[in-house]
Design goal:
This protein has three helices and seven strands. A five-stranded mixed β-sheet has the order 5-4-3-7-6. Strand 6 and strand 7 form a beta hairpin. One of its GO terms (biological process) is DNA-templated transcription elongation. Belongs to the GreA/GreB family. GreB subfamily. One of its GO terms (molecular function) is DNA binding.
Length: 160
């Protein structure tokens, strides 16, 4: 990875919780099911065995991905941001476009991004354009639908 994997403490906790759930709960259950199904004889038409092996591969792949993301993670607490007048990681930002449509976005780690909930990944085009901006600044953003200009209306961070 050429860029740090910034993540909030809550985002890191969510990755850790998923890893723990898969490793400690779901994987042992699937292993038990697969070993039981393997003991039943013919594996070629044994649905429990075939599905269990497939699910086990999916779990192992996800565990590997989660492990890599957690190792590369740089946990940043937005509440401890020194410069609260500018947009940095963890900021909740209100922007207005050319048509005076306002949007509120929170800049979070790429692993915890959810556009529907207003959580924008740190490396998304709009987040990259807004980095370092203050209230009243205008920023141009190249989006798939074309170029848009946004004005920063408000910048906020969580309380410590």
């Amino acid at each position: 990875m050429d860029r740090p994997n910034y993540i909030t403490p809550a985002g890191f906790a969510a990755l850790r919780a998923e890893y723990d759930r898969l490793f400690a709960t779901e994987r042992p259950q699937i292993v038990e099911t697969v070993s039981w199904a393997a003991g039943n004889g013919d594996r070629s038409e044994n649905g429990d065995y075939i599905y269990g092996r497939k699910r086990l591969r999916e779990i192992d792949r996800r565990l590997g991905w989660l492990s890599k993301r957690m190792k590369a993670a740089k946990v940043v607490d937005p509440a401890k941001q020194a410069d609260r007048s500018r947009i940095w990681f963890g900021a909740t930002v209100t922007v207005a476009d050319e048509d005076d449509n306002e949007r509120t976005l929170t800049l979070v780690g790429d692993d915890e991004a959810d556009a529907g909930a207003g959580l924008v990944g740190w490396n998304a085009p709009i987040a990259r354009a807004l980095r370092g901006a203050g209230v009243g600044d205008l920023r141009r953003v190249n989006l798939p639908a074309g170029e848009r200009e946004y004005e920063v209306i408000a910048v906020a961070y969580p309380a410590e």
